[in-house]
Design a protein that fits this description.
The protein is mostly helical. Helix content is about 75%, strand content about 0%.
Length: about 140
């Protein structure tokens, strides 16, 4: 029971962090699943299982997000269906590739992806435009 609560807490923390930093939660979920849970031998997940688990966790998050955005009038159903179909095809292709390469190759590729995302986040933080001043405030 303690292990399940710990896993739920880690999932919540990864989701919160992903939301705060604006990155896809999958990046953090895979890191948590591989580094924290595998190292502590709670689940003993390898890179392949962690990535598959992360992909599966996207489904309920996407459904809830689409439902909430529908309520705000932000959902473009045709675009969402197209994106979902393409993502499904990409996932099937990714699974096929991950089943033929070594676990170490997956780990190295994922590490490169995480480093790329981190560098892009740092670059964006330094190049973000300053917020525009409102008329009548701070200017003579």
């Amino acid at each position: 029971m303690i292990e399940v609560l710990g896993i739920l807490g880690l999932g919540f923390a990864a989701g919160l962090t992903a939301g705060l930093f604006g990155v896809g939660g999958g990046i953090l979920f895979v890191l948590v699943l591989v580094l924290v849970l595998a190292l502590t031998l709670i689940l003993g997940l390898g890179q392949l299982e962690a990535q598959a688990t992360s992909l599966l966790s996207v489904i309920p998050v996407a459904l809830v997000g689409a439902w909430r955005q529908q309520g705000y009038g932000n959902l473009r159903l045709r675009d969402g269906v197209l994106l979902g179909a393409l993502a499904t095809g990409g996932s099937v292709g990714g699974v096929a590739i991950s089943n033929v390469v070594s676990e170490r190759a997956l780990e190295v590729a994922f590490a490169c992806l995480v480093l790329f995302v981190a560098v892009r986040m740092v670059q964006r933080s330094f190049s973000a435009p300053a917020p525009a001043r409102r008329a009548g405030r701070g200017s003579p």
